Amino acid sequence: MEILGLLDTLESMILDGTKVPFTKKVMVNEEKLLSVIDKIRLVIQGGSDFAKKAIAHEEGRGGSGSTEESAERDERTREESKAVEVIEQAYQMAKEIRDGADNYADEVLANLEATSTRILRTIKAGRERLTKTTRVGSEK
């Protein structure tokens, strides 16, 4: 079964994760973990289709199913396949949007850090100049 392989992958990710000292916690790669979980969801959603197809196949052997029912089942199968594809595309688009937002936030924070550093340098220079001025004034 495909789901058992995915669960094995999930287990190995947890066992191979970086252990946090003095706790029973483990750090894992969030993106990889969520990707495996998404695949498990898709397999589980698709698993009910397998059962439906097996039942339909058994009914077809008994001769009780008509060609019209068979056509409807085929259409449903195509629609469900398309739905799974759309969901996969949505997950991919969401990941790309998250990545873009992370990159943008990093750029904004880097710009803020550079600006803050310049302002801090200016403040320190002003305080030093003020300190020198007051020392010279008190020495006279």
Could you explain the architecture of this structure?
It is built from three helices and two strands; from the N terminus they run αββαα. It has 140 residues and is mostly helical. The chain has two domains: 1-65; 88-140. A two-stranded antiparallel ribbon has the order 1-2. Helix 1 packs antiparallel against helix 2 (30-62) and helix 2 (30-62) runs antiparallel to helix 3. The longest helix has 73 residues, at 67-139. It is elongated.
Please outline the helices and strands:
Blueprint: H1 2-16, E1 18-19, E2 26-27, H2 30-62, H3 67-139
Antiparallel strand pairs: 1-2
How would you write the strand order of the largest sheet?
A: 1-2
How would a crystallographer describe the biggest sheet?
2 strands, antiparallel
Number of beta strands: 2
Please state the structural category: mainly alpha
Could you tell me how far the N terminus lies from the C terminus, measured between alpha carbons in angstroms? 90 Å
